[in-house]
Amino acid sequence: MSLDQNLRTMLRERAESVTATPVVPERTVRRVRMRKALSAGGALTVVAAVAVAGTFAVRSAVSTDASPVQPAERGGQESEQKSITRQVEIISQMADAINARDTDAFIDLFARDGVFNPGGGFADSSIPAAPLPVANAGAMNPPKVPVVELVRAWMAINDAWGLQAEVEVCDTMSGPISRFFGRTDVRIECEVRARRHNLSLEIIEGWNFEFDGTELLAWNLSRPFTLYELLELNPPDRTLPLGYDGLEAWEEWLKTNRPEAAARYLNPRSEGCQGGNWATEDDERICQEAWDEAGRSRLLFLGAERGWSINGYDFSPVGYIPYDPAYADEIQASIQAYLDER
Amino acid sequence: MGRTLADRTIGVWVGQSSRGELGEFYATHANSAKRLAYLLTGDKELSEDITQDAFVKVAGRLAGLRKQEAAAAYLRQTIVNLSRSHFRRRQVERAYLRREAGVHPTEAVEPRDVLAADVLWKELQRLAYRQRCAVVLRYYEDLSEQQTADLLGCSVGAVKALTNRAMEQLRANVRSEVRS
Residue A279 is nearest to which of B1, B27, B99, comparing CB atoms? Predict the structure, then answer.
């Protein structure tokens, strides 16, 4: 028998050695239910307000059996639905706090030992380029400066680019997967339409949340080593003129037409895997393979050659916007000139 | 012989939300989905997780789908994407944690079915993910080169290259294993 035939036979036999759970597992039904509550096409706050009232309507939409709901089961569902409602509220309030540049409200949304990943690292943090403890309590390595100051600096970066975040759709993912918490019981990934008005840039980012019940343990943006993959760099239905490709086109235009400005504004991205102090050559190879597969999302691997100081704190950007916000006004004017000329 | 996702068309569940329809959709496609995930990952537990993840995603996204036959393709695409994500996430995260901790790895334990004695099966698991994916889609799902290219997000030429290299590697390694 040829290799082709052997291969086909082997694949069929192997495949038939596994069978799926015969009926939809209750956990899957719960996740579908949660997804329905969390995915409201930009109307998360409305969903949050009506989610409790809609408990049984939602349940009936995904139920897999015809048996009546028992009182004890109903109590469990109500409790779970309250958690979902609160989680939806927190996600929505986080977008509101960021849009309002409200540092205190933002921090208050986290658990005492919650962490967030600011898309870069503060030099004054004891764990630069890694998630930052929002509150010092419970942190193994508390930063040397009050976290509120670092969050305020991060908010100033968002303000410089005129960030407006709009949560579009969220999804729960399976498994308590977290490097930071053993007690994560749900991970929620959201697609967020991120408009940076001062860059005329609109992309869809992945925002990822880890909850223990209604406690927000962690929040981070899509990043290479968390490998959440919700990211659309060039959304076709954007309202602002530039997707990421457009921003890069502006960079090229700037280099050609205003080289001196380009030297000041643009902050070259560093390469992703080379010189990364990998434990083994194999690890570096794995990184390189992920890099090769990542396509345009590889931008999330990239740091930048230069950091900058924001509100007196040194920040090293890792991700897709490496420009120093000190030049925000000039960059905004330059992009406008580019758009006018385009 | 089991039917693959390519053989099936979706039931009445798509785009509707009446009682029991998720169950019907699941009953029609769950085995095919899990089998594909198993062939792509070589791990029975992981394939169950991926299958459930896929149904959660599909349940949320198919409401507006008009072409019912597209649902099976969407489910297959979701399985392929999730398998790749799980595989890559685990690999890269493990490497990253080692880098952060500054430690060298101990013996790596791959999630492999311990009962897998079949040489060809073992060699299949040793292929790079995209090669394995191309082989499984071509030889198990019986997809055309164009369909495989669409699923993998690459050209037909790339699919040919992936499949040819995979088959060469399988042929050489199986021969070597049998000799030893």
Answer: B99
Q: What is the mean pLDDT of residues B68-95?
A: 75
Which of B34, B56, B121 is nearest residue A20 as measured by Cβ atoms? B34
Nearest 5°: the CA angle A320, A293, A191 is 50
Looking at the predicted structure, is the pLDDT value of residue B131 above 70? yes
Size of chain A, expressed as the number of residues it contains = 342
Residue A159 pLDDT exceeds 80? yes
Interface contact B98-A283, CB threshold 8 A:
yes
Q: Between A71-99 and A26-38, two packed helices, what is the crossing angle to 10 degrees? A: 40
The structure tokens listed for A139 are: 């942190």
pLDDT score at A331: 97
Closest CA to A293 of B95, B176, B154, B106: B154
What 8-state DSSP symbol labels residue A23? S
Band (pLDDT 50/70/90 cuts) for residue B38 is: very high
Distance CA(B41)–CA(B50), nearest Å, equals 10
Nearest to A286 among B56, B95, B135 (CB): B95
pLDDT at B91: 63
Find, in chain B, the residue whose alpha carbon is nearest to that of A65: B20
pTM over 0.80: no
Question: What one-character DSSP code corresponds to residue A232?
Answer: B
Is B23 at the interface with chain A, CB within 8 A? Answer: yes
B27–A22 C-beta distance less than 8 A? yes
**pLDDT over 80 (residue B82):** yes
In A, minimum Cα distance to B57 occurs at: A171
Question: Considering only CB atoms, which chain B residues are within 8 Å of A10?
Answer: 118, 120-121, 124
B71 closest CA partner among B6, B138, B142:
B6
Residue closest to B47 by CA, chosen among B136, B134, B108, B119:
B136
Give A105-154 pLDDT, tens digit per residue.
998 998 877 777 777 777 765 443 445 556 554 445 555 677 788 889 89
Mean model confidence pLDDT for chain B: 74
Contact B38 A290 (CB under 8 A): no
Helices (H), A166-258: 244-257
Minimum-distance CB partner of A28 among B55, B84, B135: B55
Residues of chain B with C-beta less than 8 angstroms from the C-beta of A179: 93, 97
The C-alpha atoms of residue A109 and residue A329 are separated, in whole angstroms, by 31
Mean of pLDDT over chain A: 76
**B-contacting residues of A 252-281, CB under 8 Å?**
276-280
Q: Which tokens hold the place of A103?
A: 């540092």
B92 and A CB contact within 8 Å: yes
Q: Residue A182's pLDDT band (boundaries 50, 70, 90)?
A: low
Residue that wins the pLDDT comparison between A216 and A38:
A216
Give the three-state DSSP class for B164. Answer: helix
A120-122, strands of its sheet edge to edge: A120-122, A313-317, A308-310
